[in-house]
Every structure is written in structure tokens, then in C-alpha cells.
Amino acid sequence: MSSARHDAPSDDCDACPLSAREDRRHFIREAVFAVATAVGALGAVTQRALALPLRFVAGVGGRADKTYSVPASDGVAIDKAESVIVARFENKVYAFSLACPHQNTALRWEASVRRFQCPRHKSRYQADGVFIDGRATRGLDRFAVRREGDQLMINLDALYEENKQVAEWKAAFVQL
């Protein structure tokens, strides 16, 4: 009779099926994001007068034109499913890619200091997407955006890089 137990859990990840490892990584990524969001929200409560709020939204429509409500006040809304940030700041609305232009890491909104930061290499950006400092070499990538009544139409197929499409990048906002 063998003394080895075959039903004991294994600490060896190579023994896990690939889908289980990917599910575990996805769960951990989402849990870390949720905790960071909660911590950020607590910070926003303590500095509400200075902070721009963060909320999560979902756009409506096809890939080329996604429809979002025009934000009623300054703040940031994130559509994780489409990797879009909608930011209202100083009577302008911008639509950014959620990915840092340095290495495509999901950006974080720091409400208490009103800026975006990449958690990987600490690149920082103003609320209008302008690059402040860090390893990145340009501002946040902006989507083409237009207003139709009380709706924003964001073209997810038109993404402008500050250093390549200078005029389009500078014009990619809605004046309120």
C-alpha cells in the first residue's frame, strides 16, 4: 500500500490545467484592481473638495461609435470592457485609452491629486491626458469624440497618439 496521497492539493502550478491558471491570474488581477479602486475611493472621500470622482460605465453601440452620457460634472468614468476612460475636466470632455502608452498597462486615476498614473513604471498624466513625467514619452492616447445632444460619440477605431497625429490629438475633445 502506498503512503502517498493522490487527493492532496498540489503547490505545483505546472500540474494545474492552463485554464485554471489563467482563471486564477484573472481573479487576482481583478481583486487587486478592486482593492486599489476601493482605496482610491476612500482617499477621494477624505479629499472630496479637490478630488475628481471615479465611476465605472458601459458604452452603448458598435465598435466604431460607442455612446456615453456627457458627464454632469468633472470626474473620470472607466469602461473596462472597451478599455476607455471618459474624463471631464475644466469644461472639456476627453476619451482616452485605458492603456499607458509606455507598455500598455491599465492606468489608475488618482482622484486626490487629479491625475492618472501607470502602476508599473509610475508615468503620470494630467486629467487632460498631457504627460507629466515617468518612462512614457507622450501623452495618453485619445479617441476621436463628438457630442450629439446629451450623448458623447466615441470612435474606438480612431485612436490618436500625441507624437504621430499631433493635430488630431490636440482636437480630440468636446468643449462644454
Largest sheet: 5 strands, mixed
Q: What gross morphology would you assign?
A: globular
- Share of residues in strands: 25-35%
Helix percentage range: 10-25%
Rg, Cα atoms, Å = 20 Å
Strand order within the widest beta sheet: 1-3-4-5-12
Architecture, according to CATH? 3-layer Sandwich
User: Any idea what the CATH superfamily is called?
Assistant: Rieske [2Fe-2S] iron-sulphur domain
- Summing up helix and strand content along with how strands pair, one would put the structural category as alpha+beta
**Number of domains as seen in the coordinates:** 1
Span between termini: 78 Å
Oligomer: single chain
CATH class: Mainly Beta
Q: Report the mean per-residue pLDDT as an integer.
A: 80
Can you tell me about this structure?
There is one protein chain. The protein is an alpha+beta fold and 176 residues long. The chain has a single domain, classed as Rieske [2Fe-2S] iron-sulphur domain (Rieske Iron-sulfur Protein). It is built from 2 helices and 12 strands. Strands 1-3-4-5-12 form a 5-stranded mixed sheet, with no helix packed on it.
List the helices and strands and how they pair.
Elements: H1 18-46, E1 54-56, E2 66-69, E3 75-79, E4 84-89, E5 92-97, E6 108-110, E7 115-117, E8 124-126, E9 131-133, E10 142-148, E11 151-160, H2 166-171, E12 174-175
Parallel strand pairs: 1-3
Antiparallel strand pairs: 2-11, 3-4, 4-5, 5-12, 6-7, 7-8, 8-9, 10-11
